[in-house]
Amino acid sequence: VIAALLQAGDRILSLGLDQGGHLSHGARVAFTGKFFNIENYCLDRETFLLDYDAIRQQAISFRPKLIVCGASAYSRVIDFSKFRKIADEVGAYLLADISHIAGLVIAGVHPSPIDQAHFTTTSTYKPGGPRGGLILMGRDHDSRITVAGKTLTLSAHIQKTTFPGMQGTPYLNNVAAKAVFFRETLSDEYRAWQVRIVENAKNLADNLLDLGHDVLTGGTDTHMILVNVTTLQKDMTGVAAQQGLEDCGIIVNKNGLPFDKKGAAVASGIRLGTPIVTRNGMGAEQMSVIADLVDATLRAVHVGNDGRYRIDESTRNDIRAKVRNLCQKYPIR
Q1: DSSP assignment letter at 161
Q2: What percent of the chain has a predicted confidence (pLDDT) above 70?
Q3: Could you give the residue range(s) of every CATH 3.90.1150.10 domain in the chain?
Q4: Which range, of 7-16, 65-74, 128-137, 167-176, averages the lowest pLDDT?
Q5: Are the beta carbons of 49 and 77 closer than 8 angstroms?
Q6: CA-wise closest residue to 16 among 28, 25, 6, 5
Q7: pLDDT score of 125
Q8: Do residues 275 and 208 touch, judged by C-beta distance below 8 A?
Q9: What residues pair up with 68 in beta bridges, in sequence order?
Q10: Alpha-helix runs per DSSP H in 236-283
């Protein structure tokens, strides 16, 4: 999409990586950051929510050719219609990257950007399918664009840029796997899974809040929960929390938080998600158990002056046993 629409040096407005955006949206180490003029919008400093009025003012000042919405670490609903109004006002294209919430969008659990954004992109593995991606268009598919003196539809231009412009030999086994996955997404079972994912995430967030943890935005609307671990105890970091939890059999990832003063390799937060535990059959009761296990682990983790974590061996073994017992009751499906 970007290669089809933009020339080197054109302007892109996107959510900053340090605000919950994605590397591909304009980070300096990514393709977009190397060849385009990137400006990032930020979350509100107090609420950690998207501030659409501030984004609008920034877009009016910056005048981007492309606005990117979507995130890899944002737990609340994204209002795609507001982004489209901003894009239309400044004459920009709107790209919605929904990779992290695609399953929720498919099931109608999160609003869809398909008829709001000019382009919607997603990976296929994050919502439960094989490795790969999709470029989707809604009401703008037959809009006209002039390229090198020729006028064609926007969708035809994207198609030509994709192949032969970017794409090589297809992996037909991967195409077949995508087809199987698309069929699965039409089932009642898939849609029910997505509903339960959000229910479980909300329950897990509420349980963590009740246990005294600093859950960003006070909860979640999606599958994702962000927790500021630095408020739990002195010298705690995201990386120490991640390593301590992993040592006890609980897999999360360290995550930078909006306006984080710690570097990305250390971070102040962790990110938790509920898709797999939900797929394995866990529900509200198990979310309470998981919250207790996370809480017990984080309170047992001690971070030294060298930044390394330590945890009492008997405590670690006890938590590991409880994690193993829970997982044996709900094996991977």
Answers
A1: H
A2: 100
A3: 188-329
A4: 167-176
A5: no
A6: 25
A7: 94
A8: no
A9: 14, 95
A10: 238-247, 275-279
User: Strand ranges (DSSP E) for the chain?
Assistant: 11-15, 37-41, 66-69, 93-97, 119-123, 133-136, 144-147, 150-153, 214-215, 224-228, 253-255, 269-273, 302-303, 309-310
* Residue 30 neighbours by CB distance under 10 Å: 16
Please compute Rg for the chain using Cα positions: 21
Going from the C-alpha of 224 to that of each of 105, 161, 201, 227, 291, the distances in angstroms are: 14, 34, 7, 10, 14
Give me the CATH topology for the region 2-185. Answer: Aspartate Aminotransferase; domain 2 (3.40.640)
Q: How many Cβ atoms sit within 10 Å of the Cβ of residue 14?
A: 28
The secondary structure of residue 229, as a DSSP letter, is G
The vertex-315 CA angle with 312 and 318, nearest 5°, equals 150
Q: Is 169 helix (H, G, I), strand (E, B) or coil?
A: coil
Query: Tokens in use for 330?
Result: 């709900």
Does domain 188-329 correspond to CATH entry 3.30.420.10? no
CA torsion sign for 184, 186, 188, 194 is positive
* Contact indicator for 83, 58 with CB cutoff of 8 Å: no
In angstroms, the CA 153 to CA 142 distance is 5
Assess whether pLDDT exceeds 90 at residue 304: no
59: which DSSP letter?
A: H
**Predicted TM-score (pTM) of this structure:** 0.94
| Beta-bridge partner residues of 41 | 15
3-state secondary structure of 228: strand
CB 322 within 8 A of CB 313: no
Separation between Cα atoms, residue 37 and residue 9, nearest integer Å: 5
**Start-to-end Cα distance in the chain:** 35
Q: Helix H segments across 63-171? A: 80-90, 102-106, 154-162
| Domain span(s) for CATH 3.40.640.10 in the chain | 2-185
Average pLDDT, integer, range 284-301:
97
* Tokens encoding 296: 């017990």
Q: In a 3-state reduction of DSSP, which class is residue 219?
A: coil
Please tell me the predicted confidence (pLDDT) of residue 101.
Answer: 97
